[in-house]
């Protein structure tokens, strides 16, 4: 099975087991070594499923010839960048360059409240940061990408659509796209076979612009911090009650208005945290997941007690259509 075509052959078996995944991995390792030789490969490693699996595959195939660049745009969920560093640098001994570009992104986003403008700024700045880093490196011949088969079916095959991972068109690298014929479920099976943690391989979809489109309106650092903390509590509680494995996408959005509340017998003005938990197969339509009231109460109690700046918790009951999954 050669992977140099963009068309998945009918004969290609769906990868559903560890055995099939191992066979795919062995085959890809040979192909990658053949393609790359002793040259260097660059990869933008977001920590999402696709780029993580490509990184793990390339580390197996060419080790330190792979240079991973992880750009923290300051809009990651709690603990995400730390996990990328822990798994790839500490556990897999990868050649990982970590760039904390939080200030660059948040400074550019200050005062910008229009959703598409926010997306453009985040996408554009990501390319700039990555490009700057790439130009500092010498002897890179290949650019690895976590393109998967639905990306090829839906677009021109380059992971630019919707994704912060869209890279400069004028980069003079040859592409290395080892999972481009795989469907998402297969990528997860391969990721597990490669030994990546479940928290990385089974994670819910997360938009490229990250928390940037959930910190509604013009992003401020204090509200972004509150959103990140509240989102972490929601994820923890969904893990605990088993909903994490059942719900397709779940998150918190925090709008930019406050309401009156009371805390410690004093007036306490705060933002509301809005819970969104949806199920879908293709993200074109979505239904609402029913969350048991006791879970909702626990989440509400924790968020309002533990998160500075939040004084109410609301539940979004709107299916798609008419509500999109994200608020922005
Ligand atoms: P909507 O909000 O359009 O979301 O119902 C459908 C799916 O797409 C994700 N989404 C994005 N992903 N960049 C991304 O990479 C974006 O700008 C973006 N906007 C929405 C959303 O999280 C959901 O899974």
Explain the overall architecture.
This protein has about 325 residues and is an alpha/beta fold. Helices cover about 40% and strands about 15% of the residues. It is built from 10 helices and 11 strands. It has helices at about 20-35, 50-60, 80-90, 100-110, 115-135, 150-155, 185-195, 200, 220-240, 295-305, and strands at about 40-45, 65-70, 95-100, 140-145, 175, 250-255, 260-265, 265, 270-280, 285-290, 310-315. The strands form 3 sheets. A 5-stranded parallel beta sheet has the order 3-2-1-4-5, with helices on both faces. Strands 6, 9, 10 and 11 form a 4-stranded mixed beta sheet that branches. A two-stranded antiparallel sheet has the order 7-8. Strand 1 (about 40-45), helix 2 and strand 2 (about 65-70) form a beta-alpha-beta unit. Helix 1 packs across helix 2 (about 50-60) and helix 4 packs antiparallel against helix 5. The radius of gyration is 21 Å and the shape is globular. The protein starts with 17 loop residues before the first helix and ends in a 13-residue tail after the last strand. About 40% of the residues are buried.
